[in-house]
UniProtKB/TrEMBL annotation:
Species this protein is from: Apteryx owenii
PANTHER family, A to Z: PHOSPHATIDYLETHANOLAMINE-BINDING PROTEIN, PHOSPHATIDYLETHANOLAMINE-BINDING PROTEIN 4
Entry keywords, A to Z: Signal
Transmembrane feature ranges: none
Pfam family, one: PBP
SUPFAM superfamilies referenced in this protein's UniProt entry, alphabetically: PEBP-like
Signal peptide feature range: 1-20
InterPro entries: PEBP, PEBP-like_sf, PEBP_euk, Phosphatidylethanolamine-bd_CS
Family: Belongs to the phosphatidylethanolamine-binding protein family.
Protein name (record): Phosphatidylethanolamine binding protein 4
């Protein structure tokens, strides 16, 4: 009888595990980076925005590993990533920000701008139009911990020229009537020497 009860319990647990795999997760998805003791990364992706750096591929919802000097290379060598949004059919505004500047413990420069591009068609193979704000590599200060680097893609309202002004992410989005991002993603990194 105990053997039968154990077999039924095992079958029930196996059925639960299979059903759990079929059910998409609700809320933010957490991607555990490799290695022990590292933080989980809340994946704030929306849409199918792809942010591709050399040798790393799409960095959305991931952390930049220290192996092969990737943290140093993303901070000092690599130029702007390739950005692609497969569903693009309009003009867009792309913003790359660091909401953890200068550190997560003291984000007094929250949403530090690293890149701002307007009038773009992200699915087009041609290069982006001139940047409103040139790309600034992610370079978190030493001993400031992990920083999130977020890419937000907004549909640009028709006949609206977006200009650079004093920076507040919320006011910028409101002033130019950008609404909610149509797509977004982020990656996590820290100073390459830490």
């Amino acid at each position: 009888m105990e053997l039968l009860r154990a077999a039924l319990l095992a079958a029930a647990l196996l059925g639960t595990a299979v059903r759990a795999e079929e059910t998409p997760p609700l809320g933010p998805v957490f991607m555990p980076p490799a290695g022990r003791g590292r933080p989980l990364i809340p994946c704030l992706s929306r849409g199918d925005l792809e942010v591709v750096y050399p040798e790393l591929g799409d960095v959305g919802c991931t952390y930049i590993p220290e192996c092969r000097q990737y943290r140093q290379r993303i901070s000092r060598e690599w130029s702007s990533p390739r950005v692609r949004y497969p569903r693009a059919d309009k003009k867009y505004v792309l913003v790359m920000v660091d909401p953890d500047a200068p550190s997560r413990a003291d984000p007094r420069n929250r949403f530090w701008r690293h890149w701002l591009v307007t009038d773009i068609r992200v699915s087009a193979p041609a290069p982006f139009p001139p940047n409103l704000l040139p790309y600034v590599r992610p370079a978190p200060p030493s001993r400031s911990g992990y920083h999130r680097y977020q890419f937000r893609l907004y549909e640009q309202p028709a006949h609206e020229a977006v200009a650079l002004s004093a920076w507040s992410m919320e006011r910028f989005v409101e002033r130019f009537r950008l609404g909610s991002p149509v797509a977004s993603t982020q990656f996590l990194t820290k100073h390459y020497g830490d």
